[in-house]
C-alpha cells in the first residue's frame, strides 16, 4: 500500500466515524428528548433491565424494519406503534 492510499483511507475512515457519531447523537436526542420513555422502559424490561442492551437494540439496524434501527422509527406515532408490536412479538417468541 502506498502512502497516498493510506491518506485516502484515513480520510474515508474519518468521514465514516463522523457519520456514525452524528447518527448516534441523533438517536440519543430521539431517545432522551423525543418522549419515548415508554418504549425505552419496554425494551429495557424485555432485555432483563439492562439499559446498555436496550439502547444497543434500539440503535442497531434490524431486518424487520428493512435495515432501519428502531430508533429511526420513534419520531412518529405510527413508528412507535410498530416498535411496540415488534417488542410484543419478541416477548412472545414470535420471530420474523
Verbal overview:
This protein is mainly α and 96 residues long. Helices cover 68% and strands 0% of the residues. The chain has four helices and no strands. The protein has helices at residues 3-33, 37-46, 51-59, 77-91. Helix 2 (37-46) packs across helix 3 (51-59) and helix 2 (37-46) packs parallel to helix 4 (77-91). The longest helix has 31 residues, at 3-33. The radius of gyration is 17 Å and the shape is elongated. The model has no long low-confidence stretch (mean pLDDT 86).
List the SSEs and their pairings:
Elements: H1 3-33, H2 37-46, H3 51-59, H4 77-91
Helix pairs in contact: 2-3, 2-4
Helix segment tally? 4
Percent range for β-strand residues = under 5%
Distance, first to last CA: 44 Å
Unreliable stretches (pLDDT < 50, length at least 5) are none
Mean pLDDT: 86
The percent range for helix content is 55-70%
From the alpha carbons, calculate the radius of gyration and give it in angstroms: 17 Å
Number of strands: 0
Biggest beta sheet summary = none
The outline comes out as elongated
- Secondary-structure class: mainly alpha
The sequence of SSEs as H and E is HHHH
